[in-house]
Amino acid sequence: MDKNYYCVIMAGGIGSRFWPVSRNAMPKQFLDILGIGKSFLQLTYDRFARIVPAENIIVVTSQSYVDLVRRQLPQLAAENILAEPYRRNTAPCIAYASTKIRAVNPAATMVVAPSDHFISNEALFVDTISAAMKYASEKDELFTLGIDPTRPETGYGYIQCNMKQSKTIDGNIAYKVKTFTEKPNRELAKVFVESGEFLWNSGIFVWNVSAICSALAKWLPEVFTLFNDGDRYYGTPQEQDFITRIYEECPAISIDYGVMEKTSRAWVFQASFGWSDLGTWESLYLHAAKDSDRNLVKCTDTMIDSTSGCVVISQEKDKLVVVKGMKDYLIVNTDDVLMICPRDDSKFKEILADLAVNEKSRFM
Amino acid sequence: MDKNYYCVIMAGGIGSRFWPVSRNAMPKQFLDILGIGKSFLQLTYDRFARIVPAENIIVVTSQSYVDLVRRQLPQLAAENILAEPYRRNTAPCIAYASTKIRAVNPAATMVVAPSDHFISNEALFVDTISAAMKYASEKDELFTLGIDPTRPETGYGYIQCNMKQSKTIDGNIAYKVKTFTEKPNRELAKVFVESGEFLWNSGIFVWNVSAICSALAKWLPEVFTLFNDGDRYYGTPQEQDFITRIYEECPAISIDYGVMEKTSRAWVFQASFGWSDLGTWESLYLHAAKDSDRNLVKCTDTMIDSTSGCVVISQEKDKLVVVKGMKDYLIVNTDDVLMICPRDDSKFKEILADLAVNEKSRFM
User: Fold this and answer.
1) pLDDT digits (tens, 9 = 90+) for A246-255
2) Is B364 on the interface with A (CB under 8 A)?
3) Using an 8 Å Cβ cutoff, are B22 and B4 in contact?
4) Among A102, A293, B90, B94, which is least packed by CB within 10 angstroms?
């Protein structure tokens, strides 16, 4: 494995999307909601450990989740966990990680990825990321991974490709980025997919450290200047104080909006390794293994009859869960919450909104 | 209150009808399933304490429930709890209580009643029972209470009245019993109710102790002979051994079948105090107080939306129960069982049957 390859896993998200299983104190990336035996964070780490040397894997998370990261990834060196004192979106996170990596290895090439996504074809994932990193190590270009859309999904952002500017990289295709778009409505999503010009925005980036630092300096100087001073503090006992001080001043801005939309060096690397951000119960249901009645069941003891299309999750040990005559419902039981709701993201979102309105925030 | 008035409360039933709230170890009579603050047994005791002297109230129960009775009725003297070693239906239970009462007071008049029924008009109940007892204290007749049917209920037994043989008792009407019938089907139940000749069989009896002992001696000599010897043991340390010995020999038989159907002294005392045996979740739902969406909710913390006609019960403390988009379901959550099932007695019965088939009897 190339000693210059680095991976930055972004694990700072707070989580209500799989409420009541996910909580502010236990967001999605730390959950094993598919019942695989590993959390999303652990799965993400394992995937990248096949691409970059283990000592070059860095996790950026919120200060409040540092203990969770340590517990789930005990093999990770303490200095490889970067703790963000405030939530400032992806650009500051990437500026921190990039300048920190640059300080120890200016020849580094990085892959940056969320910690809570689902990848169905891991071998293809490894091949695709490796190809992108190999290419990016030699060119000052910024790659974002775009996923071949398989349906007119309204829950994702899209990247429009400039179909006239493409290149073949080790059997893969990369296009010059034309536009980034927010989540479209159903009609627009259909137009996007049918056009053949749009890919799903995966939030995974590949670039060499010099290229991203130059781009940050050019397009987000107000962010980059703060971190550019970091060389003096990184790896010293003063690092955390320095980070706390500059994060307070730092604007919250995404790398897509702050850099990728502006630079002419942005390319989208087409990928088809089976990806989902598992951002909703519905997307979890779609990707999870189901029984012959299309139920996703995770309980210690069940008696389920005349029931189909349901998610049935109970985290209480030794509890018998009896379900009869239900169709397309979410049934989720934790130690302190029982939720029964149609398996419909819009209904579920109403519940999240109602929790605040009904002063049930303590259950978030 | 008349010192010769006695009450026998039958509290030996085992309970799966309100599963998973009721259990073999905690049957219905010991539950406060309506959320009133008192169990059915405690409510039954309170009702009869308005009619008979407290020291004359006797509870007959299974040996395994004696501690539960003591805990729920601490005011009851130890000798007023009769412990049955085996389940032998109502005739042996009544023979035991009757001979025991006769031993201390041969002039006694008794009311015998189940411990787990619901009475909506308690004042009328007191008046009706009092009138029946007053009359029965002077006549060697056996009264069963028949409830004016308000619907063609298929869950109850019916008593057919001999409309030509009636008498007025203190403003009430009693008819000679023509037949006892088992639970009818829907068509037959309609015919019964429309005929005006049928009353619901409440399982409540009123008679003087001499009359019931004579009737038992005549119609159930194989049972009565066993208990007739009891005078030697009742109130002594040998009573329980004696009872254990004779219960083993005793056939299991109901008082309806063993005595009331046979004797010409059986009368049905018409009553209309609002009665239900609350024998099913559906009957509980019908009689319980409901919210404006017709939901029966008993939980410490809920957020219920777009939901109607549901029973929502959670016995876990500090658990938030979130229910959305449900219609006519039973949602019952205990420490070790979560049940979600259509609010339909036949579906619920299937679950009870399935528990055994699926080797989940430990949850019964």
Assistant:
1) 999 999 999 9
2) no
3) no
4) A293
